Amino acid sequence: MRKAPPPYGTATFCDDFRQEVGNKVTLVGVYSGDMTFPQGVTFPLGIPKLVVRGTWVESTDTDLNEITFKVGIRKFDSDPDADDDQAFGEIRFDAPDIKAVREQRPDTKNPLLFLNPVFMLSPCFIPFPGLLRVRALRNGEWWAISGLSIREPPKPDGDSPQSAAE
What Cα–Cα distance (Å) separates residue 69 from each residue in 9, 37, 77, 166? Predict the structure, then answer.
């Protein structure tokens, strides 16, 4: 018998998310680690929509009783272990929720539990540059899942071809 992997989580940051027939999803405008803006954009700012799709995977026979997924932003220079993110949202799965998900998967050939929280932030207000991060509070312990760096627009360069032409 194959041994299940330890619990882990991932998250994808994108512009839109659609649930399709056959339990498929479409992710539109997926970010690859950084969200950047053109010159002239200043913080705070708003964007029409940001979707965060999480995935949590663990064995169906673990001691998972509850898990809360949190999305928040912190400044780059703040303490990464502090729980002082500016919250964007949270989704909680408690014992009855987890039991229901387990019961939807009676297939003993795949002994994994999948939880997929989806955060639709529309409109999305971004107060400052920083790390938009996804964390999970699993049975009282914090787990880092993923992050998206939100960067300031590049500063105009006095030696750039554009500034020389002006």
Answer: 10, 27, 23, 49
Q: What is the pLDDT of residue 105?
A: 67
Element containing residue 17 per DSSP (H, E): strand 8-19
Across the range 20-31, mean pLDDT stands at: 92
Domains annotated on the chain, with CATH:
8-151 (2.60.40)
pTM value is: 0.85
Structural contact between residues 156 and 39, judged by C-beta atoms closer than 8 angstroms: yes
By DSSP bridging, strand 130-138 and strand 141-150 are antiparallel
* Cβ(124)–Cβ(50) below 8 Å: yes
Helix residue ranges, H only, the chain: 95-103, 161-165
In single-letter form, the type of residue at position 61 comes to D
